[in-house]
Specification:
Blueprint lengths: L1 H16 L14 H36 L3 H18 L9 H4 L2 H5 L6 H10 L14 H11 L4 H9 L4 H36 L8 H26 L20 H17 L12 H8 L2 E2 L2 E2 H17 L5 H34 L12
Antiparallel strand pairs: 1-2
Length: 369
């Protein structure tokens, strides 16, 4: 009789533990290759092709500016820098293949940029961007500084490229920055096109090193560390105990940090929903995978909860100052509220979604999330 009672309570306990987990089909029954094909062909490759086109235009804008530094070419260069920065938000999460090998994200968007190192590089005219020690002196944040941060107004900034004794060195540095961004992007894109796409799609298993498992981990890592923490949490002082207003993205331009954040949030939600790049059309995705599994949490479908939370975080962010540095300095509480809304999706995706998909976290979490 005691054995029967124990068996009954064990069954009840197990049933309760899986209440928020998969309640429908089995994980292995989903067409994992279909989701990989949609990611590769309709999201990743088109996004990289778009970014490569923008970085090619960035290189051309740099050439026009250094050939004839004036207000018009400076403004044209800035406009192309912003277009490139927005396009970057759609590829930053894809740190796989060649991008992982060359630490692509660290080379393109490590901020805050090291202004002292940049000025030292220009003064000595000796630098090697392939060295890890130079990561913080290159990429889009470095361009932000040399296009906006050298002086208090456009005329003083232009003087560094026209009348300054190191004007040629400044122009060379700007050119080298743009060439480096473009060449690294071409390298990553060509690898996806010629090698990695087929490898990525064909590896449709459920092992720890399979394409889907690695991509999901990279996606959540990006959302948690680069988007949630990097763009909002670190400037708001969540991890330091005090605000750090100079740690926002595009700090020197002074007006684009919120715009870039919202662009990255859109990209993250589009990836979750399998939305084709530059289109409203959708394919197989993490959302459709969860729907297939009929995954619920507290009686609500998990994919619905995640999308609602994306929208809630977006609504909070819309109320922020366009300059997130100013927002931190004037009303940091609003930054903290936005961070809290972003954090809720870390739990939904990193805990509930990974449990439903039977995927383990493959990176070390050092900030207690």
């Amino acid at each position: 009789m005691k054995k029967l009672v124990l068996l009954f309570f064990s069954t009840v306990l197990l049933w309760g533990c899986t209440d928020n987990g998969p309640s429908g089909s089995e994980v292995q029954d989903f067409d994992r290759q279909a989701i990989l094909e949609n990611w590769a062909d309709n999201i990743i490759l088109p996004a990289f092709e778009n970014f490569a086109a923008e970085t090619e235009s960035l290189k051309e804008a740099a050439n026009d500016f250094t050939t004839s530094p004036n207000e018009q070419t400076l403004n044209d260069f800035r406009e192309q820098w912003l277009a490139s920065y927005k396009a970057w938000q759609h590829v930053s999460m894809f740190e796989m293949g060649r991008a992982m090998e060359i630490r692509y994200r660290d080379n393109i968007n490590l901020y805050p940029t090291d202004t002292s190192l940049i000025l030292e590089n220009i003064e000595t005219n000796t630098y090697n961007f392939e060295l890890p020690s130079q990561n913080a002196a290159q990429g889009l944040p470095a361009l932000d500084f040399v296009l906006y941060g050298l002086g208090e107004n456009d005329q003083s900034i232009l003087s560094f490229y026209t009348t300054d004794e190191d004007a040629e060195a400044y122009k060379n540095y700007v050119t080298d920055l743009a060439i480096r961004i473009d060449s690294l992007t071409d390298e990553v894109l060509e690898y996806w096109q010629n090698v990695y796409r087929d490898e990525f799609v064909s590896d449709s298993g459920n092992g720890a090193n399979s394409s889907l498992n690695m991509m999901v981990n990279d996606y959540i890592f990006y959302y948690e560390k680069a988007l949630r923490a990097g763009k909002i949490g670190i400037p708001a002082g969540v991890f330091s105990g005090s605000p750090l207003s100079d740690r926002v993205e595009a700090y020197y331009s002074g007006e684009y940090s919120k715009e870039l954040f919202l662009e990255s949030l859109d990209a993250a939600q589009n990836f979750f929903n399998g939305t084709h790049f530059g289109s409203e059309q959708k394919g197989e995705s993490l959302s459709s995978y969860l729907e297939f599994l009929e995954t619920t949490k507290d009686g609500e479908s998990l994919e619905t909860l995640i999308n609602i939370q994306f929208e809630t975080a977006r609504q909070e962010a819309q109320s922020l100052n366009n300059n997130l540095s100013e927002q931190v300095e004037t009303d940091n509480n609003q930054m903290l509220v936005t961070y809290d809304e972003l954090q809720k999706n870390v739990v939904f995706m990193k805990v509930d979604m990974l449990q439903a998909l039977n995927i383990s976290v493959d990176y070390v979490d050092a900030d207690g999330d």
